[in-house]
Amino acid sequence: MDDGYRAIGTEPFWAVTVKGSTAVLERPDRAPVRYAISRNDDRRAVRFLGEGFSMTVTEGPCSDGMSDAVWSDRVAVAFGEGTLNGCGGLRDDQGEP
């Protein structure tokens, strides 16, 4: 996750990109929102925490609900307007040969 981390969700659509100490929340029809964050790991989860923002990443598997893609992590994002649930990490949609 050192090179960045990306999480996505559907219904409603959203995405969070983490790079360094910044998380950017993107949603359709809204301006992107940036949060200054710190990272906190324990045995159960990785948490990105900031003022009015937290993103908790736990091991998956996770389906995005819109495609056959399976992601390595389950993600929950809590911010001023509520909680968004989705997927993140590595995407494995190669399927069986």
Textual characterization of the structure:
The protein is mainly β and 97 residues long. It has one domain. 0% of the residues lie in helices and 64% in strands. The protein contains no helices and 8 strands. The chain starts with a strand and ends in a 5-residue tail after the last strand.
Summarize the structure.
With 97 residues, the chain is mostly beta strands. It is built from no helices and eight strands.
Strand order of the largest sheet: 1-2-3-4-5-6-7-8
Described by strand count, sense and barrel closure, the largest sheet is: 8 strands, antiparallel, barrel
Question: What percent of residues are in strands?
Answer: over 45%
The total count of helices amounts to 0
Helices and strands: which structural class? mainly beta
**Helix and strand sequence:** EEEEEEEE
Number of strands: 8
Beginning-to-end CA distance, first to last residue = 29 Å
User: Radius of gyration over alpha carbons?
Assistant: 13 Å
State the shape.
globular
